[in-house]
Design brief:
two-stranded antiparallel ribbon; 67% helix; mainly alpha; 3 helices
Length: 79
């Protein structure tokens, strides 16, 4: 695989991971947050702690255990 194709695949992998992680965070905020204005949601206090935990469980743990995130698995990248 040439350098350009490899970079493009890595960008796609990162994009997939970002979309999936942000989807999880948005769902959490929408489900457990408070609507402060129409269309604006907020999570405060200890309720914000699961958000870094989602990041840890989604990106760091799979990378350490398998060397791949979901995005890398879907695009076929190796560690």
């Amino acid at each position: 695989m040439n350098t350009f194709a490899r970079k493009r695949t890595r960008y796609l992998s990162s994009f997939i991971d970002g979309v999936l992680l942000l989807s999880i965070v948005f769902f959490y905020i929408y489900s457990f947050g408070d609507e402060v204005e129409e269309g604006k949601w907020r999570v405060e206090g200890s309720a914000i702690l699961p958000i870094p935990l989602f990041w840890l469980l989604y990106l760091v743990v799979p990378e350490v255990l398998t060397g791949k995130t979901v995005g890398k698995k879907l695009t076929g990248l190796t560690a």
